[in-house]
């Protein structure tokens, strides 16, 4: 029998749900809390997904033949399917958003596309995988916020809430796949931590680049009111980053694993809501 390489709990099933979302109505307006900045922030996040998720798939797929644990192999397959549907849905989202609101998709995606091209050519595959494991942790931390009690999408447009929570659930299910593959191929702790520092910086930069373009097109880039509400939205009492520092920092621990934080109840809770 081959050695276990997957450390996702056995009762967590990674299952792709091939969903389609009708977002046209919502994307016309400020769908997140009717707030200009909050909407711009999530729209800018969405812009990074199709390129990012394709990168995640590629960096994990590169090691497909190096994994001997059938459980992890199966999880990798489900991970590819989940991310493929996410990127399809977010591509449609992004194209629709730009068509409806006059944003320039090429300008929004350009810097990320160029950097990804550079990384593909110049960065060793193992380091690319470390980057994926890092961003998957960032995603999992935000997914927990999206599904948890604070319900950051409580006041969002229902169609948008459905999309973001569906994506969050699947991110939570597969949160350890890239990490387990990285560990199985002998990735070092040092490289993993360095990848997290870099990824945090770049992801923040990419989102801010998107926010800037969007607010500029909306004609509110220099509005103090918009930026004030932005600070509150990020760091305030109901802010989306509130409470995320501790789980973020966990990644830097020597013996870290994504499932040390058991978030499976959030998946079950979401499943239950869906059946009502
Ligand atoms: Fe995803
Ligand atoms: Fe993911």
From TrEMBL:
Record bears the keyword Hydrolase: yes
Entry GO MF terms: hydrolase activity
Keywords, in A-Z order: Hydrolase
Protein name: Metal-dependent hydrolase
Originating species: SAR92 clade bacterium H455
